[in-house]
Amino acid sequence: MSPYEISDCASIDFTFNSRRTPVYATKGMVATSQPLATEAGLEMLRAGGNAADAAIAVASALAVIEPCSTGLGGDAFALYYSQKNKKISALNGSGKSPQNLSLEKVAALGISGSLPKRHALTVNVPGALAMWCDLIERHGSLPLSTIFAPAIRYAEEGFPVSPVTAHMWKEDGDEVLKTSPGGSALLLNGEAPRTGEIMTSKAMGDTLRKLAEGSPDDAKKLFYKGEIADKIVQIVQDNGGFLSKKDMAEHTSLWQDSIKTNYRGYEIHECPPNGQGLAALIALNTLSNIELDKIGAPDSAERLHHLIEAMRMGFADARQHIADPDVYACPTDKLLSRKYGAERAACISPDKANPDSRSGVPVNSSDTVYFCIVDKDGNGCSLVNSIYMGFGTGIIPDGLGFPLQNRGHNFSLDPAHPNVLAGGKRSYHTIIPGICLRADHSLHSVFGVMGGFMQPQGHIQVITAMLDDDATPQEALNRLRFCIEPGEAGGRVCTEEGIPEETVEELIRMGHEIDIRKGYNRTIFGRGQIITRDAKTRTLCGGCDPRSDGQVSGIC
């Protein structure tokens, strides 16, 4: 009998036998999980727009064509690199929990352990629209009427549903949409659309048209203080949630400084907490003390063991310290210090797993979309938009055409935890965009791997591939991956079918609990995109994850 479990899902093939090569261009590039969304971004670049304009065109298009993963009812985080001043700005578009929500009220409802996954109680203020508008106001150059035009066209005229999206739509649609308030708005004759079927969303088209009529500030007023806010609040309260008009009206995005660590002479930047980018940086800071290229091939047990152990430590610290920055002062500087990285590296045994990794700094008292753009001037945008689980709560406000997220499920109900549920608080967030700079602060790459708690794990795997092994973006994304599930230090290690059997056997001998994933179950390993920029020639090189329906395309 095999010592490890093999999980399978035969309904869709993910063996990645087709060959993908990097895409090269010079005057702009867009990489997304959907070809139609990539085209929306290119449309903006051809119209004279920049990376910010293209990013929001992509975000709005994905809200229409991949509503199981993203949309106006969710949150978004972005990193934006300005070629002019060679600086990165981080934009936190996550919303707060209802101010009237509390542990006491949850307990009075008989709820313990965690909030129900699909309940209206988990609906925080959706921050995506404000984040889109704030990015355009600071960095964009085109009007919303132009930026939203492709998404409106897809919503009103229809779009063919792609294979991976159709599978997700079916999987989550049967479970969520058929039983959720308003869920039928995203079904086709009462069923999830199949691959190639044409899907339209008049309600979503109408919503985007209204938002596109004025300035970004006008759009925010309509969404957070106008009729859209009224409809969101009404359906949440009708289904037992606490979201109020006051919660919506007081929402703002946060412009922040990115956090970073140095890895092999490059600066790796992430958004600060309440996002989990810190977990990836802690792992990379740990690995910077280890010469990976000298301890084994990329698919060897020795190499994977060190990556897994570093990631366990990253998760241990992240789970202990990531929370709303307005409520908890995360010791980021200490966690990313060179001294701490060396201490954590010294804790890694070369041949023995430690699933009981603990935080080294005690407390003081995936459904998502990722995409990236680099424009002709060298500005780069790395952006993640999410409604958390597939279709979020599945609750769709009347006439709006988009589901509301269930991000509040990430709150802890432990009163002593920094991420404890409280009113008016941002929860722990899984969504993290990444940017890599050279020592002179020129742009090396915009990168990300969507997929819940896979995201920091994907970040360290593609970054080590590019910076330790000189892999191209496509080669880095093609590599078989591991995933510690469910994003906790002590979780079991899922590996992709195709990793050498001797590697798996050696990891088991080291003490890792292994679960080999194949078929559709490989989606646990995320879906990423990467664009690099050559410092001398300014040539752009892009890759798109073979686990997605996506496409990278450029302009010359």
UniProtKB/TrEMBL annotation:
Gene name for this UniProt entry: ggt
EC number(s) recorded for this UniProt protein: 2.3.2.2
Enzyme class: transferase
Superkingdom, taxonomy of origin: Bacteria
Organism from which the protein derives: Maridesulfovibrio hydrothermalis AM13 = DSM 14728
Pfam families: G_glu_transpept
Keywords tagged on the record: Acyltransferase, Transferase
Protein name: Gamma-glutamyltransferase
Any one Gene Ontology molecular-function term assigned to this protein's record: leukotriene C4 gamma-glutamyl transferase activity
SUPFAM superfamilies cross-referenced by the UniProt entry: N-terminal nucleophile aminohydrolases (Ntn hydrolases)
Signal peptide: none
Taxonomic lineage: Bacteria, Pseudomonadati, Thermodesulfobacteriota, Desulfovibrionia, Desulfovibrionales
InterPro entries: GGT-like_enzyme (IPR052896), GGT_lsub (IPR043138), GGT_ssub_C (IPR043137), Ntn_hydrolases_N (IPR029055)
